[in-house]
């Protein structure tokens, strides 16, 4: 089971610098279901490394940003997540792992697993 399939649909969001149409096309190409919450470039005034996108996603999910875990592959996104108060799993691949300032750095999503507990 993939990481995204293991998560309840309302428990994750996508925050992207792409516009909504491009984001949907990329998610579809990657085989990821359309998220319940998508924050795109058209939803915010300032992009990454500004935290606005992650703060808006947390607000829409009705959770404190400090309770969020962000998976990011770019330094600007990591900086945005950190500025929002989120914890970060840095995904290596597009940038040298040593340049990624995540709480954890993983080689790919297969290295991440999730345990879902009912409330």
CATH architecture: 3-Layer(aba) Sandwich
Largest sheet, spatial ordering of strands: 3-4-5
Tell me the name of the CATH class. Alpha Beta
Envelope shape: globular
* Share of residues in strands: 15-25%
Biggest β-sheet strands, sense, barrel: 3 strands, parallel
Unreliable runs: none
End-to-end Cα distance: 22 Å
What is Rg? 14 Å
What name does the CATH topology carry? Rossmann fold
CATH superfamily: HAD superfamily/HAD-like
Order of helices and strands: HEHEHEHEE
Mean pLDDT equals: 91
* Strands, count: 5
Based on secondary structure, the structural category is: alpha/beta
The percent of residues in helical segments reads 25-40%
How many helices? The count is 4
Instruction: Tell me the count of domains.
Output: 1
Oligomerization state of this entry? single chain
Description:
By secondary structure, the protein is an alpha/beta fold. The protein has a single domain, classed as 3-Layer(aba) Sandwich (Rossmann fold), CATH 3.40.50.1000. It has 4 helices and 5 strands, in the order αβαβαβαββ. It is globular and about 30 Å long. The two termini are 22 Å apart.
Topology diagram in text:
Layout: H1 3-6, E1 13-15, H2 20-29, E2 37-39, H3 52-61, E3 69-72, H4 75-84, E4 87-91, E5 104-106
Parallel strand pairs: 1-2, 3-4, 4-5
Keywords:
single chain; 119 residues; alpha/beta; Rossmann fold; 3-stranded parallel beta sheet; two-stranded parallel ribbon; globular
């Amino acid at each position: 089971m993939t990481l995204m399939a293991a998560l309840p649909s309302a428990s994750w969001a996508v925050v992207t610098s792409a516009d909504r149409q491009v984001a949907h096309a990329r998610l579809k190409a990657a085989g990821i279901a359309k998220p319940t919450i998508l924050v795109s470039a058209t939803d915010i005034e300032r992009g990454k490394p500004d935290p606005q996108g992650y703060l808006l996603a947390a607000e829409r999910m009705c959770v404190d940003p400090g309770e969020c875990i962000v998976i990011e592959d770019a330094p600007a996104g990591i900086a945005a997540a950190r500025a929002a108060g989120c914890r970060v799993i840095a995904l290596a691949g597009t940038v040298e792992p040593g340049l990624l300032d995540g709480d954890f750095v993983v080689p790919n999503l297969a290295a991440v697993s999730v345990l879902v507990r009912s409330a």
